[in-house]
Design a protein that fits this description.
The protein is mainly α. It has one domain (7-99): Chorismate mutase (Chorismate Mutase Domain, subunit A, Up-down Bundle), CATH 1.20.59. It has helices at residues 13-44, 54-71, 75-99. Helix 2 (54-71) runs antiparallel to helix 3.
């Protein structure tokens, strides 16, 4: 962990790649946590039709875009990523609902 430098401190591509790989591992761990919540939602929701909630989807994407703006991250890229993430989460939750 000590060999992971912040992006602005990297001087070589090896350092950049080490940092990116570290962030990717952290993102996967966070995605695993997020999908565990989808499992919980599938268990809690009383009917399959409750899985897709367009108002909540819009809220989640808007929240992510606001966080992106505050962090100086490209908002358009985040909106696109979150659109795909939320749709993948809905598909996952539907499958989890069907399994129960």
């Amino acid at each position: 962990m000590d060999d992971i430098l912040p992006g602005p401190d990297c001087k070589t591509m090896a350092e950049v790649r080490t940092g990116v790989d570290h962030v990717d591992r952290a993102l996967i761990a966070l995605l695993a946590r997020r999908f565990a919540y989808m499992d919980a939602a599938a268990r809690i929701k009383p009917e399959r039709g409750a899985v897709r909630d367009e108002a909540r989807k819009a809220q989640v994407i808007a929240n992510a875009c606001a966080e992106a703006r505050a962090a100086g991250v490209p908002e358009d890229a985040v909106a696109e990523l979150w659109e795909r993430l939320v749709e993948a989460s809905i598909a996952y939750e539907l499958a989890a609902f069907d399994r129960r």
